[in-house]
Amino acid sequence: MTGIVICMVCMGAIVLFCYCWFRRMYVKLTEEICDTLDEMIAGKKLETNQDLEKLSSKIASKIQKLGEVTQYTGAQNLSQKQEVQQMVSDISHQLKTPIANILMYADTLAESERLGEEEQRFVGVMRGQVEKLEFLVQALVKMSRLESNMLVLKKENAFLFDTLSKAVSAILPAADEKDIDLKVECPQKLRLFHDPKWTEEAIFNVLDNAVKYTPKGGKIDLTVESLQMYTRLLITDTGIGIQACNQNDIFKRFYREEKVHRESGVGIGLYLTREILARQGGYITVQSELEKGSTFSLYLSNERPA
User: pLDDT digit string (tens) for 17-65?
Assistant: First the structure.
């Protein structure tokens, strides 16, 4: 009986020793992998042990190769992105003067008494098309400058009501033309650290879509709520709504649903809104139901700059 007890104690000791040894080796291996990853993240050149018989050295070697491939791919993507942004910026800049000249000539022709009714209609159509082209160029310039960090958002302690007022004033003519009831609820003395100019742009883009896709006689409500960490702007419309499968895609560059291709626009507005909010520590979400309308929630951070 005593021999059995001694045997069991020995077996237990051996099991415990094996457990401790494997655990120590596991911890050591994990630490070596973490150190290797930390060096990769810091951009340091890895000095791996060339003894590939060791498991840690094999793993470190594979991680190093993966890091080199990832770094090369990242640099290549960044270079291509910068080239595209530069090309967009150059083309947009070159288009500004011709567009301005065409608009000037169109206005001059429209004022001429020699043109008949049909010629006047042609001039009006031409001006409308050039204005669309001008809008596209301006949108591309904004996107390019924002993505290339040429524009830095400057947050200041400003009244949110003033920012909303400018965005709403810009959209009112279009809303009145469609007889849309636009209501705004915002405390006039609410101050928030934000970039007034670019936040106005972000709000306008959402309101512009709301007016564009809301039928005549519809409603748009803009309300402001102060939360613990964010200030939320709710923009609710009675428009055509967005399919559930497309609600994540609408914030991508140049994305437009099939059913709205006849409407003016290039699919940049919501993308810019998301980027503008993100660069101020905020974000945007959407809830929508087909033929019943959409609610966009724009979140602005309440945090004060350091």
Answer: 677 777 777 777 677 777 766 776 666 665 655 554 566 666 667 767 7
pLDDT digits (tens, 9 = 90+) for 165-210: 999 999 999 999 999 999 999 999 999 999 999 999 999 999 999 9
Backbone angles phi, psi at 142, to 5 degrees: -60, -45
Give the domain range for residue 280. Answer: 156-301
- Do 160 and 294 lie in a common domain? yes
- Which residue, 61, 134, 124, is CA-closest to 96? 134
Q: Are residues 280 and 162 located together in one domain of the fold?
A: yes
- Residue pair 176/214 in contact (Cβ under 8 Å)? The answer is no
Residue 80 inside a domain? The answer is no
206: CATH: 3.30.565.10
Rounded Cα gap, residues 167 and 260, in angstroms:
23
